[in-house]
Design goal:
536 residues; alpha+beta; D-Maltodextrin-Binding Protein, domain 2; Dipeptide-binding Protein, domain 3; 2 domains; seven-stranded mixed β-sheet; 22 strands; globular; signal; transport; Peptide/Ni-bd; SBP_5_dom
């Protein structure tokens, strides 16, 4: 039975990438997207926020990919792969004729270099922990080896990856931006500037980056998927306040206001049939949360962290964003496999929270800082959280900063508390493991990592690895139960205060074509640039 399932899945993955649009795509034109903040980087080993996610995916490719608008895996730079009987060795057969934007042919050595680079501690990649299942990871991640011993290139068209344990998420990892293939000579020539001068194999290439103004991406005429992309180019304009961007979209000057519909305008937009017709709504694998740095006082005490959970009035905060979310009880969102349906979470109870603070030795409260991204509605959400904390004696000064600065502080461990909004976790793929490793696991609690709570529970890491070693589909329920137990243990330790699970609303101009799913694409946020087109 196991071999039948594997061979069936393999046959599907060996198919040539194809995507059927509901309307016949038209070629040409330029699309304009706006953002308030500039883009931090386009280096796939470094970039890890929703703003640059889709741009990186259009500039680079990985061994695996997803069907546009879905989380269904399909082949990428590897046209096929095989898996050994013990579930430990993947052999990827690369597509031939794939070229980097500089004209050089991509080879297996580029894949090996790219995977080694992201694990190298000198790269300070927030995605390093994703690769812990590959043989030789510990030595490579510690800087004690030149690369991953489990990644080899027996010839120019073949990559072999040996795992130290079976892992149910591995093919998803090969579709993440951290696995995207980069050319060694360009990375070494550009150094720290590679993120501003990226060269990949993707559907678009960056041709202009005027800091604080715009980024321009032009069609790659040599892209390996025939007929893609449809656009000649797309432009990302930065420095645009969301309100201004919305007005420009209403005037037909902007195709997608990338920061979304400002909360102050949401009801107005949705009550106008003409504007509402341009809004695409989709569910998302998302949780917004407050992190607490568990390595420093006062958040090194679990009673304090639990008190914060009990102090936050989640229902009131949902109203701040016009009801576009549901209160969260745990790290996983309700639509994620492994979500614990009968878990109520921490009740809103300020008096009980005060008692917990007193038990921890903080009867008189304390002062701290709450970092927040400066795009509306996040500062207003932070103010609501600030008021709730004040009610139990915690005086949290708000530090409202650009997204990149908040992420930097979180990675460096210098932020006592962070409201994750605007940067909140949206799953890379629909598996409970993805909400753990990078943001709650020990692998993410490193310099530059995405685990801003710096929470590291080695026992839970071991249980997570055990859960992900279950690759037999017949034991899927057993695996999900293990993940449910892991997240319940996380909530006991309370490194986060989960606040809400948000729905996604995107406005697009009337001239844009393509399935609605492309504009709420779960892995190309906020839009899949490769497959949208201009109808006019």
């Amino acid at each position: 039975m196991k071999k039948l399932l594997l061979s069936t899945a393999l046959a599907a993955l060996m198919a040539v990438p194809a995507f059927a649009q509901s309307d016949e795509p038209k070629l040409g034109g330029n699309m304009i997207v706006t953002y308030k903040d500039d883009v931090a980087t386009l280096d796939p080993a470094i970039g890890y926020d929703w703003q640059n996610w889709s741009m990186i995916k259009s500039v680079f490719d990985g061994l695996m990919d997803y069907e546009p608008g879905t989380t269904v895996l399909r082949p990428g730079l590897a046209e096929s792969h095989t898996l050994s009987d013990d579930g430990l060795t993947y052999t990827f057969n690369l597509r031939q004729g794939v070229k980097f934007h500089n004209g050089r042919a991509m080879t297996a050595d580029d894949v090996v270099y790219s995977l080694n680079r992201v694990v190298n501690p000198a790269t300070q990649s927030p995605g390093q922990g994703f690769f812990s299942m590959i043989e030789g990871f510990d030595a490579a991640a510690a800087g004690e080896a030149d690369g991953l011993s489990g990644v080899t290139a027996p010839d120019a068209n073949t990559v072999v990856i040996k795992l130290s344990r079976p892992d149910a998420t591995f093919l998803h990892i090969m579709a993440l931006n951290f696995s995207f293939v980069v050319p060694k000579e360009v990375v070494e020539a550009e150094g720290a500037d590679f993120g501003k001068k990226p060269v990949g194999t993707g559907a678009f290439k960056l041709t202009e980056w005027s800091l604080g103004q715009r980024l321009t991406f032009e069609k790659n005429p040599d892209y390996w998927i025939s007929g893609v992309p449809y656009l000649d180019s797309f432009t990302v304009e930065v420095g645009q306040e969301p309100i201004v961007a919305l007005l420009r979209a209403q005037n037909g000057e902007v195709d997608i206001p990338g920061d979304g519909i400002p909360p102050a305008k949401f009801v107005e937009v949705m009550n106008d049939p003409e504007q509402a017709a341009l809004v695409v709504e989709g569910g998302q694998l998302h949780t917004g949360y407050v992190t607490m740095n568990v390595t420093a006082a006062p958040f090194d005490k679990v009673e304090v962290r639990r008190a914060v959970n009990m102090a936050i009035n989640k229902d009131r905060i949902v109203q701040v964003i016009n009801g576009r979310a549901v209160p969260a009880t745990q790290p996983l969102p309700p639509t994620m496999p492994g979500y614990t349906k009968d878990y109520a979470g921490y009740a809103y109870d300020p008096e009980a929270a005060k008692k917990l603070l007193a038990d921890a030795g903080y009867a008189d409260g304390f002062e701290t800082e709450l970092f927040v991204m400066n795009t509306d509605p996040n500062p207003r959400i932070a103010q609501a959280i600030q008021q709730d904390l004040k009610a139990i004696g915690i005086d949290a000064a708000i530090k409202s900063l650009a997204q990149a600065n908040v992420i930097e502080a979180g990675g460096a461990g210098t932020a006592p508390m962070i409201w994750s909004g605007g940067m909140a976790w949206i799953a890379d793929f629909p598996d409970p493991a993805n909400f753990y490793g990078p943001i709650l696991g020990c692998g993410g609690a490193v310099e530059g990592g995405w685990n801003w709570a710096k929470y590291c529970n080695e026992d839970l890491d071991a249980k997570a690895a055990e859960a992900d070693s279950i690759v037999d589909p017949a034991k899927g329920d057993e695996r999900l139960k293990m993940w449910s137990d892991i997240y319940m243990a996380v909530m006991e330790d309370a490194p986060w205060a989960p606040v809400f699970n948000e729905q996604r609303f995107t406005m697009k101009s009337a001239r844009l074509g393509g399935d609605d799913a492309l504009f709420v694409d779960p892995v190309s946020i906020p839009v899949n640039y490769d497959y949208v087109f201009i109808k006019e």
